[in-house]
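Help! Submission page says 'invalid entity' but I think these are all valid:
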Amino acid sequence: MAVPSSSPVTPAASPLFLREHEVRRGVELLFFGYTRLTRSIDEGLAEHGLGRAHHRALYFIARQPDLTISELLKILAITKQSLGRVLTDLGAQGLVETRAGVTDRRQKLLRLTPDGVAFEARLFDALRTSLAAAYAAAGQESVTGFWRVLEGLIPPNDRVMVAALQKDM
Amino acid sequence: MAVPSSSPVTPAASPLFLREHEVRRGVELLFFGYTRLTRSIDEGLAEHGLGRAHHRALYFIARQPDLTISELLKILAITKQSLGRVLTDLGAQGLVETRAGVTDRRQKLLRLTPDGVAFEARLFDALRTSLAAAYAAAGQESVTGFWRVLEGLIPPNDRVMVAALQKDM
DNA sequence: CAAGATACGTCAATATGGCTGTCCCATCTT
DNA sequence: AAGATGGGACAGCCATATTGACGTATCTTG
């Protein structure tokens, strides 16, 4: 996109307003990549009559056992009511269980049951297959760049939360 | 991660079954990055009483003027009925117009009106601000990696379509 | 200890964006 | 002339999200 290499007097325009092509490319690849990856687990979910919303909850509970409801709400950024139905479904299928918090008994600590662990692992396999293939095709340096750009898309406020998820990897 | 540097007898396990941490990290960053980016335009859309589905159509019509309905259906991978409602809304607001195809008059060629162009540009500004900031923070080499990994997530069948979008950039 | 804040649950109503199945019309192809 | 294709439209359904109000148990603090 026509960054004029002329006019050396004017300072380079802010990068925020340059590179429309690069931005469009990112928007499109993000759209296709994200939607195609998420589609890869729909079949597995459908076997249990569950949807993507259930998977998101399942995934983050698997990731951080003993997560509380309010922590999960922050991660998913949906309302309590929306999450409520999802957790009811997961509980009814015996995939998730809750216990009272230890230091604060108002809290509910969320955990996967053994069935939940097995089911999440099955779904994760599909994600792993797709992502690992993409990583392998792109090469390790690309993976680092992939992460860096995505991190930059997360508002600073949310980064603490994301970092917390990954702290004990 | 722990790829054991020991056991030189066993061949390295298939990369598809290694690196759970890296895969989880990718899944999470993709989730947060994608959802946060898309949220950045919700406000602008709400001013017109439109949703994300409308934006996706608007975006790809902006990207490829004179797109046909069936091409757009392939890109979005939704049903004709779902797209129909979206296009009706966009047409009613004077953002999108159609003309009969030139070589095949059954086709409808989709285009943004001047209002549509202006509105899409406004929404795109929000995306550009977010993405360009992430690009700048990550550095150009990272951007390349970001693209490569995402390309790898797109099923080979769909890559032609994505490449077509970007061919005249 | 009483008052208030917090964690969670729940009711009712609503919006959005998908889906299936069916049928129709106009136009192109053979 | 017959069939295939591009597009539109009907009816009904489902999943996932929303807001707002209210209830209960528990923790915190003056």
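Support: the input was valid. A stray whitespace character was the problem, and the output above is from the cleaned input. Confidence is low (pLDDT under 50) at residues 1-13 of chain B.
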